[in-house]
Amino acid sequence: MAEFYIGQIIFTSFNYAPRGFLLCDGSTVNIQQYAALYSLIRTLYGGDGKTTFKLPDLRGRTVLSMGRSTANGSLYLPGQAGGAEGVVLTAAQLPAHRHDINVSSAAGTVGVARGIPSSTGGPSKTNMYADPTANSTVTLGSATVSTTGANAAHPNMQPFLVINAAICAVGLYPPRD
């Protein structure tokens, strides 16, 4: 079996940490028990630094290499966490857009609903569309544009496949050169 460096993280398809490894689940562990691992990661992921330190917590996280982003210049440091599984967008984050109601002041060409005389000479109880009366005005119903949405978070996750992450706690101490 290949030897692993202490602090090296592996991914496995099974649901436990192999011998010499600990799950990357944010657990708090004892410095004395894992002194070599502590000497490498210290309190990057938490812990009091006196008797305990924390392991990296990769649950629900993707891995990002440390350094400066070539896209926006952001600096990402070891142990830094960020991002969110869901996000609520604000109006400021939406692109400029409009919700217009288009109307025309031109004369209409559709007839209005009005009573049609009945064949018996009495008033008709049925309104039907008929030719418009010259110079007639029809009041349209009011129209409003309102807000929509629930101010709720939407998923912000890339497609994923869940596998197990474990950090080597017992192995070769990594050389600096």
Describe the protein in words:
The protein is mainly beta. It has a domain at 1-60 and 160-177. The protein has one helix and eleven strands, in the order βββαββββββββ. The protein has one helix spanning 35-41; strands at 9-12, 21-23, 28-30, 52-54, 67-68, 75-76, 86-87, 113-115, 127-129, 154-155, 164-168. The chain has a three-stranded antiparallel β-sheet with strand order 1-11-2, with no helix packed on it. A hairpin with a 6-residue loop joins strand 5 (67-68) and strand 6. It is rod-shaped, with a radius of gyration of 34 Å.
Could you give a quick summary of the protein structure above?
By secondary structure, this protein is mainly beta. The chain is built from one helix and eleven strands. The chain has one helix spanning 35-41; strands at residues 9-12, 21-23, 28-30, 52-54, 67-68, 75-76, 86-87, 113-115, 127-129, 154-155, 164-168.
SSE inventory with pairings:
Blueprint: E1 9-12, E2 21-23, E3 28-30, H1 35-41, E4 52-54, E5 67-68, E6 75-76, E7 86-87, E8 113-115, E9 127-129, E10 154-155, E11 164-168
Antiparallel strand pairs: 1-11, 2-11, 3-4, 5-6, 7-10, 8-9
User: Strand content of the residues, in percent?
Assistant: 15-25%
SSE ordering: EEEHEEEEEEEE
Taken from the alpha-carbon principal axes, the silhouette is: rod-shaped
Helix and strand content put the structural class at mainly beta
Helix segment tally: 1
Largest sheet: 3 strands, antiparallel
Separation of termini? 24 Å
- Determine the fraction of residues in helical runs and give it as a percent range: under 10%
Low-confidence stretches: none
Number of strands: 11
- Averaged pLDDT: 87
- The strand order across the widest sheet is 1-11-2
Task: Please tell me how large the radius of gyration is.
Answer: 34 Å
